[in-house]
Inverse folding.
């Protein structure tokens, strides 16, 4: 039986597949169905992340880019964990959903630390794993204390943007076209997510289109552009055999 609900979110009716599990700490607009997939729009829209992962993996296979390969791996797990979370409406899989987000955000953070010369190739994995695991571990006590651990994502996102601003102010030679595209798409995604969570635009029984589902779609498109932006630095991976032009998974026009 369900015994814990510190955030007082709506729970699933008794007898539903996930009704005996602790619920997450947040309820998006889409109404819950009594089934293995409780919110179809918010669940199936995560296929956008998996599609981008496939596209980046194919580019990595063609060019030997470790950056595209790293983003492909992270986006695969991000999409899978988010799929399971929205399908189940459970805290258990919400922890994995945050694990996927921390995997992504610390990839940004570590790559920026590499660009700034703060972390070398030998230390990047240690910094990455310690950050991902420690932030994921924070989610569990914050749940029991009814503290919104969504703030951890906001904190890390702000840190990434501050890192980029500092690098830019430092006069580094960087092509920012992909970054601008990524930020534009992220802005659109964030807008849809905000409309959803505040119920400004909310049609609960529409299981085809939801604001948070559009967050997934536009967010995936943003991350595709972000991967190509970071690939220009050649910080991860090796060249493809016979490739003398550098470790890139994108073609410059």
């Amino acid at each position: 039986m369900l015994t814990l609900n510190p955030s007082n979110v709506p729970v699933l009716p008794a007898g539903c597949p996930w009704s005996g599990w602790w619920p997450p700490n947040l309820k998006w607009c889409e109404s819950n169905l009594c089934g293995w997939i409780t919110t179809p729009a918010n669940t199936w829209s995560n296929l956008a992340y998996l599609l981008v992962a496939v596209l980046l993996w194919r580019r990595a296979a063609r060019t030997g880019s470790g950056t595209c390969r790293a983003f492909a791996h992270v986006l695969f797990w991000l999409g899978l964990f988010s799929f399971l979370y929205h399908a189940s409406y459970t805290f258990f899989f919400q922890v994995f959903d945050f694990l996927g987000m921390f995997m992504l955000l610390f990839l940004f953070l570590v790559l920026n630390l590499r660009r700034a010369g703060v972390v070398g190739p030998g230390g990047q994995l240690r910094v990455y794993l310690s950050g991902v695991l420690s932030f994921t571990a924070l989610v569990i006590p914050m749940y029991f204390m009814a503290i919104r651990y969504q703030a951890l994502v906001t904190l890390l996102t702000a840190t990434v943007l501050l890192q980029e601003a500092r690098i830019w102010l430092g006069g580094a030679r960087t092509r920012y076209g992909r970054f601008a595209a990524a930020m534009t798409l992220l802005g659109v995604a964030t807008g849809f997510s905000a409309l959803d969570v505040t119920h400004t635009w909310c049609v609960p029984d529409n299981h085809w289109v939801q604001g948070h589902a559009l967050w997934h779609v536009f967010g995936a498109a943003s991350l595709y552009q972000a991967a190509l932006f970071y690939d220009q630095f050649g910080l991860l991976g090796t060249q493809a055999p016979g490739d003398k032009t550098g470790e890139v998974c994108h073609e410059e026009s």
